[in-house]
Every structure is written in C-alpha cells, then in structure tokens.
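Incident log, entry 3
Record: DUF1616 domain-containing protein (181 residues)
Problem: checksum mismatch between cached and fresh output.
Input:
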Amino acid sequence: MGSTKRITLEEYVERVAKRYRGDRYRALQEVYSRWLRGELKLVDPNPPRDYVHYLSRLDYSLWFWTVMFLVSLTLTSIAFSYAIPVLRYLRYVLGSIFVLYLPGATLIEALYPREEDLSPLERLALSIGLSLAVVPLIGLILNYTPWGIRLVPIVVSLTIFTVIMSIIASWRKYLEVKHGP
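Fresh output:
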C-alpha cells in the first residue's frame, strides 16, 4: 500500500479484499505473502508491560511453559517409573526429549531470541546438535565431582541447565519485544 500509517490487520485485509472484489481468502493470501517477503510489518498494539506480563501471555511465552511442562513431566515420570512400571515407556520417550532436544533448544532460544534469526529447520538441527555437545560436557563436569555420573546428578544438572537457559531466553525475548529489533 505504500503507507506507513499504522492500521489494524483487519482494516488492512479489508482494503486488500476490495481489490479482489471482497474475496477475503485471496486477500489473506496476499497479506500473508507480503508479510513473508518483508513488505509488511505486524506490530502488537498491546505489547507486554513487564516481564511477568510477558510470561503470563501465552502468545509470547507458550514455548517457555511447554519446556517447563516437559521438564516437570520428565521428572515426574522418572520419580514414579519404579513404582508404576507402565510409566517406564513414557520415561524413555520423555527422557530422550529431555536429553537430546531440550538443553540445545533452550540454548538456541537464548542465543537467537528473534524468530527471524533462524528457520525452524535450523533451530531443530542446532538444538539436537547442541544437546549432543552440551550433555556430554555436563557429564564430564559431573565426572569430577563427588556425585559422579549417576541418574540423580545428571537429571538435576540437566534440569538446572534447561531451566536457567529457558529463563535467560525468555528474558532476551522479552527485551526484543520491549525494545523492538
């Protein structure tokens, strides 16, 4: 449209739909393709006021709460898998995600807080790759402690690492929202 005036997305779609004789589907496709090409910038009219508000808005922090839920579910499955044998299979699945994906994913989110920095495929590949690098380093450090490499020290260390990286990533993402790119 060439205008830098701020209007709502709904108003913009209506303007584009007029060119397509009211066909909202084609108008939405056009708006989406313009957004993908970078010709259109979408801005939240009501951004979070502070960090707590950022964490309470799921449109910004759903990834954070998903990580916290997966960590909690993994810890629960580990704790109860000895008493309830059926949970052993859930423990295998969640443990694999906990070890092979979450440490790297939270580190990637902390290093690259903006969505535009990496494509989803790059994020996935780097998350798995960094997990395969970080987890052995944590194990190496644990080897030289009095606790050694056993289940509890490994789970505690990976939980601490994942939670700290998640908090750092959410803070950096909040700063991106607050100050803009």
